[in-house]
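Allow me, if you will, to draw on your knowledge of protein folds for a short while. I have a record of one protein: its chain in single-letter code and its fold written as C-alpha cells. I remain grateful for any guidance, and I place the record below:
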Amino acid sequence: CFPVTILRPNNFLQKSNDTYFFTPEAYQEALDWLFVQMPNYQIDGQKAYKPGLENITKLCNFFGNPQGKLKMIHIGGTNGKGSTSNMLASVLQEQGYKVGLYNSPHLIDFTERIKINGVNCEKEFVFDFIQKLRNIPEEILPSFFEFTTIMAFEYFYQKKVDFAIIEVGLGGRLDSTNIIKPLVAAITNVDLDHQNILGETLEEIATEKAGIVKPNIPIISGDERDLVKNIIQQKAIENHSEFIDATRISTDLETDLKGNYQKKNIRVVLAFVNELRKQNIKISENSVENGLMNVHQNTKFIGRWFQFSENPLIICDTAHNQAGLEMVFDQLNAIDKYKHIVLGFVNDKKIDDVLKILPKNAQYYFVKPSISRGRSPKEYENSLISAKIDFQIFETVDAGFQAAKIKCKSEEMIFVGGSNFVVGEFLEKNL
C-alpha cells in the first residue's frame, strides 16, 4: 500500500489556490502517478491483490455509496465476461436505454474501462477523481482496482445511467465489485486461471466465482460441465436464489463478434434478457437481434477475435489462459492458411502447457509485453527448442509483429495474442 504522505503530489498538477486544472499533459501525468502509487494487479501481479470487501465498503461509504443508487448487472467467469457484458450492453442500447459498462483491463486507454453507450468516460472526470485521493482517510488506502471501481460507480451515478453492467475483476467472492446488489448476475464459465490466488482445482475456483451469488437474486450459469453447474446451483439454493442454466437455451442468433466461442456467450445474454423481462424491463426481439449484430458499433468493443485487416488477414485475440487459448487455437487450425503467430505472456504463465496446444503449420514470433510482469521469451527458449517449432525471439511486441508482417505473404495470415498486454500494445501501435 502507498503511504498517505504521497497523496498530495505537486509534480503532475498545475496548482493555484488549491485548484487543480486539467490539461492533456496533466491528465497523463496524473494517470501515470496513479499506476505507480497504487497496487495494480495487471502490472504488479499477486502482491497488488487485496481480497475482501472491507476496504471497498469503506471507500463506497466515503463517496456516499453511489452503487446503491443504480440498477446493476453483475458478470463473472473465467472467460467470456467482456464479450457477454458488451453484447448485453449493445442489446440494452438498441432498446434505447442508457447503459454504463465497467470492464477491465483496458487495452489502449484507461478510459476504456468505464463507458456509457460505447463512449469512454471523459479524461477530465478521471483527472478530477484522482484528485479526490487527497481527501481519502489514511486507513482506507485503496488498491488500483478498488479506486477504479468506485470511480465507475460514481461516474455512472452522476450520468444517471438506466443500467450499469459490472464485470468482475478477479474471482468473485472477494472481488471489489461484489459489493453491489444486482438485478441479476451470471457466471459465464469456470476454468483454471489465477490458481495462485483462486485455488488449484476447478472446484476451488468455481466456489470462489460462485461467491457473487446473493440472496434472492437470480444467477445464470453458462458452464456446460455438471461439476461447475452443481457448485453454482448449490450456492443458489443456499441463498434462495433462482438458478438459470443458460446451456439449455437453443438459438440460431448470431453476433458480429466472430470467435466461435461467442455462441456460448450468446446463450448467457439471452438468459439475461429473459430474467430482465421477468422484472418488467422492456427488451424487444428486434433489440436482441440488432444488439447482438452491432456490438462493435454500439460499444466499441475490440480485442476478441478482432480482424485487424483482410489482406493479409490479421487477427488478434486477448485469450490468455489455457482454456481460452485452446478455443482460439482450435479456430486458428480451422483456417486453411499458413500462419505467422505473434505470442507473448506474463510471468505466471505455464509455458509448457501452452506449447502442447500450439497450431501447426506456423512460424512463431515470441515477444515480451512491456510491463513489469511481462516475461522475456529468452527465459523459456529451451522449452521452445524442445517443442521443435519454428520460432524467433523479440524483446518488444512491435518488433515481433513487424518481422511477421515482412515474412507474411498475401495468401497467409498473422495472429497476435497470448496476453491482454500483447494485444493492447499491438493495437496502440497500429490502430
User: Anything to note?
Assistant: DSSP finds 17 helices and 16 strands in the chain.
